[in-house]
Amino acid sequence: MLKKILKSYDYSLIIVTVLLVIFGLIMIYSASMVTAVQRYDKASNFFYEKQKINIILAGFTFILTALFPYKAFQSNKFLIPMVFISIVGLGSIFLFGHEAGNAQSWFKLGLRNIQPSEFVKLCVIIYLAAVYAKKQSYINEFNKGVAPPLVYLGLVCLLIVIQPDFGTAAIIFAIAVSIIFSSGMSYRNIGKLCLIGLVFLLLLMVGLKGKIFSDNQMDRIEAFKDPFQYEQTIGYHMSNSYIALGAGGIKGLGLGQSIQKLGYLPESHTDFIMAVVAEELGVFGVCFVLLGLGYIVLRGLYVGMRCKDPFGSLLAIGISSMIGIQSFINLGGVSGVIPLTGVPLPFISYGGSSLLQLAISMGILVNVSMFVQYEEKYKAKEEQQNPVQKQKVYHNVFQHRN
What we know:
By secondary structure, the chain is mainly α. It has one domain. The protein has 14 helices and three strands. A hairpin with a 2-residue loop joins strand 1 (98-100) and strand 2 (103-109). The radius of gyration is 22 Å and the shape is globular. It starts with a helix and ends in a 17-residue tail after the last helix.
C-alpha cells in the first residue's frame, strides 16, 4: 500500500519546485551582496544565510503537508480555528504590527518578521474550496450557496487594504474569483456577484470621495505612465528596472556581474530580483524562471481538472491560480506592464513568510495530485477486480454549471 502511494506522488512538481528554490537562493546571494553591506551594514552573505534557514524550514513543512491527507483540511475542526486565527492575526497587525515598505503588514519577532497576509492567501483558498465543495448540491442557490462564504473574503480583503497592502488584497480577490468560476455555480450567479462587486466599488469610491488609493499608490500609478519623467523621484524603481532588463540582452552580463544591484536598484533581492536575473543571465535565465513557474501553474490546473473530489479540485485550482496571479503581478510590475505593487516573485524572491506559505501550498498540491494519480492507477484496477466493493464516485465541480 505504502509503495503504491509513493509511486503515485507527482515528482515532476517536486523537482521543478526544488530547482526554482535553489535557483532563487543563488540569485538572492548575487542580488543582495551589496544591499546587505550598504543598507543593513551586514556581511555580504547575510540574506543568503537567512534564506537557507527559510528553505530548511520550508522543506520540512513541505514534506509534512505532502504526506498529510488534504481531505482533513475540509473538517470544521480545522476550518473554524483557521478562520478565527486569520482574522485575529490581521486585526492584531494594527496593534502590534511593524511598518515596512509604507505598510503596517508585519509582526517583528526578534530577528524575524512574519507577514500574516501571506498565510491568509492559503486560508482563503482552503476555506472557499471547502465551503463551495460542501455546497455542491445547492451551489446555484444564491442566498444559501453562493453569498455566505464571501463575507469572510470581504472582511479579509478589507483588513489588508487598510494596512494598506493593495497588492496582496488584489491577489486574494483574484484567487477567490478563480475558485468561484471553477466552483460549478451558474453564470447567472457569477453575473450577480460581478454586479454586487461593481456597486460595492462605486459606494466605496463615493465614501472615500473618489480616493481609493493612498498617495504612495497614486505615485506608483503616475510613475507607471512614464517612469523616466520622474527618474530621480517616484519613477526611480521602474527606471532602474528597465535599465537592468535592457542591459542583460540574450546571454546576460554574467552571474554576479549586475551593475544595477550596486545601489541603483532598490529591493534587488525581493520585488526586483527578476530584473537582476535578466541583467546577469539574460533571456536564458528569464526563460528558466518562466518555464518553471508556468509548468507548476499548468500542472496544478491539470490536476484540478482531473480530480473527481470537488474539494481537491478547487484546492488545486486555487493554489495554482495563486502562484500564477502573483507571478504575473510581480513580473508585470518589474517589466512595466502594470503598476508596481510590491509583490514578491514566488520561489525566487527573498522572504521567509512567502516561502513557508508556498511550501505548505505546494505540499497540499502534491498531495492532491498523489490522490488523483493513486485513484486513477490503482483504485480503478481494484474496482475492476472487486466490482462489489466499488468506492463512492465523486463528481467534478464543472459538471454542475448551467
